[in-house]
Fold this sequence. Notes:
Elements: H1 3-39, H2 44-67, H3 76-104, H4 110-136, H5 143-158
Helix pairs in contact: 1-2, 1-4, 2-3, 3-4
Amino acid sequence: xxxxxxxxxxxxxxxxxxxxxxxxxxxxxxxxxxxxxxxxxxxxxxxxxxxxxxxxxxxxxxxxxxxxxxxxxxxxxxxxxxxxxxxxxxxxxxxxxxxxxxxxxxxxxxxxxxxxxxxxxxxxxxxxxxxxxxxxxxxxxxxxxxxxxxxxxxxxxxxxxxxxxxx
Length: 167
């Protein structure tokens, strides 16, 4: 198998896992959103922000312990900080679409709100996928690179060392 095709296969698996966690997160997000709208009098965007925050917490657990479990685990504080920063940007994107639809176009029926929220989630997901894989859940060095470096070190250790001349 060529290295490029194995890289493509890894990317396809990563996208599938990201999609599975993200899909479950969308269900959590929409479920909490509709629950909050149904049981409270909160404005639509506030209800959406609450739902998005719950989904962000759900997604972090799924991404860290399933999708990106093989990624670098050093610096969890930095990882979580970056995750929250990029998630907050995604929250603004997602709820900005909902805000525009609700207050800009007057689309406030339950169906319109759910469609607008779903579109916002979709746009924000593109940003989140790029930012999480690039900045948050960083790849560990490739196994081939590590194996190559180890073989070089092993070869160097087997070379005879030049004898020092003592004057």
